[in-house]
Amino acid sequence: MIEIGAGTGALTAELAARAGRVVALELDERLCAQLAQRFRGTNVSIVQGDALEFDPASALEATDESGRYVIAGNLPYYIAQPLLRHFLEAKPPPQRMIVMLQAEVAKSIAAQPGQMSMLSVSVQLYGEPRILFHVPPSAFRPPPKVRSAVVRIDVPGTLRAPVADSEAFFQVVRAGFSARRKQLRNGLANGLRIDPAKAATLLAEAEIDPTLRPQMLPLAAWADLTDAWIAAGRPEGRR
């Protein structure tokens, strides 16, 4: 078990009672010293540092463990997306993530075609998210100004769409969402800086309606569009 942002250790103690071993990450040096004292001689290992730079494989080796693991934590909304992607792309990836996020972020992560976003696609390529429950501001002291939600992301260990080149995939997805309110033909042309007619040709090759908006596409359609872009020689203009 890996905990992101152990803080004062309230969740850490609950995890330690249920898991064989807990690696608790905390950025604040002062809190790390308190955590080390509190959990001395237990199944909890305290790691001081930035979670975005943390290597799960190294932690597993240090604790004489191997294989898949579970991640838990309360993720700050402003770094939730890079944190999720950092661990979802890690080697080895987690088996499961159970994290608390701002409710709007949780809703975006779990969105279905029709309401998809760059964040939805980024997470759902690697795992299957679902919102477990919402947490009202009154559950915190002091109460925040936003609602929170706990999300579970099951990670199969293989991509959930036929993507051979993830870098190209995300380049196409970013291009498609560069003009979210526009039709795909125009948004893709804007994002890749190519002629709208060429964008329409790529969409036709992928058998995607060019008048759709990016939030309508499922993962498989983005994978097909990426294949079409690669097959066409990855056309991209310059600013």
Structural write-up:
The protein is α/β, with parallel strands linked by helices. 38% of the residues lie in helices and 17% in strands. A seven-stranded mixed β-sheet has the order 3-2-1-4-5-7-6. The radius of gyration is 20 Å and the shape is elongated. The mean pLDDT is 92.
Task: Supply the helix-strand structural class.
Answer: alpha/beta
Distance between the termini: 46 Å
Number of strands: 7
Number of helices: 10
Give the spatial strand order of the biggest sheet: 3-2-1-4-5-7-6
Element-by-element helix/strand order? EHEHEHEHEHHEEHHHH
Question: In the residues, how many domains can be counted?
Answer: 2
Please report which band the strand proportion falls in: under 5%, 5-15%, 15-25%, 25-35%, 35-45% or over 45%: 15-25%
Q: Helix share of residues?
A: 25-40%
Look at the structure and name the CATH superfamily of the largest domain.
Answer: Vaccinia Virus protein VP39
Q: What radius of gyration results from the CA coordinates?
A: 20 Å
Question: What is the overall silhouette?
Answer: elongated
Give the CATH level 1 class of the largest domain. Answer: Alpha Beta
**Mean pLDDT metric:** 92
* Unreliable runs: none
Report the major sheet: 7 strands, mixed
CATH fold description of the largest domain = Rossmann fold
In the CATH classification, which architecture of the largest domain applies? 3-Layer(aba) Sandwich
